Amino acid sequence: MKWFLACLALFAFTVSAADVSGNWKGTAETQNGTIERTFLFKVDGNKLTGETNSERMGKSVIENGKVDGDNISFTITVKFQDNEMKLNYSGKVTGNDLKLHVEGAGGMTIEYVAKRVS
């Protein structure tokens, strides 16, 4: 009976985790215009890895990524005007939609809306 309950609990946890694996394309509106960023997410249990790319800031590796139910979080390092900056992402997955909140140095925030592309 204990084995059955343990398997049932594991199944419930697996079902409740967001399916974020794959390619996503996000856009954010800023005072300087629209920013586009692509995300390639890989999930292993509750660990989130992958990379992201934007025309303005180039490619970055996803670090410290986590999946907790429908919520994800991760950090990337970008180079902006020869300075490195950490950006902290947090978001919520709803089917093929992803809303991401980004925080950077000096209180900078950006809101992305992303769609799964594959």
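Above is the first protein from milestone M3; the second protein from the same milestone is given next.
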Amino acid sequence: MMNLTTESANFIPGGGPSERRATSRFPLREEVKYKVLHTKALETIGSGQTLNIGSGGILFTTDERLPVGRMVELSVNWPARLDGTCALKFVAVGRVVRSEANRAAVRIERYEFRTRRTLAPVGETPGK
């Protein structure tokens, strides 16, 4: 049985008035590479670090302010391995929904996991 006097004091339905996400996000600190798509000017390419990620979006650090409303492609080295051996990367395309000087939030529209090539130490065969 829930103790209403202590547990309900910390509970804010819907995550509070400033919470706009429909899905949960999880803290994940991994390298991210990004590219702003469909630009007529010089292509914006950069790298940063993920701050949190969920099925609906990703928050990450940036080299510069990204344009809100623009589509970006993201590539994140995934911490889990396929069958415990094959390195993966998470590749997503989404729209910038919030941007500051050094971080951006992207709403994910599509994604996939790809295998990531890893370099073996000199003298060893990759995958061994």
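Note on the second protein: Residues 22-115 form a domain with the Thrombin, subunit H fold (CATH 2.40.10.220).
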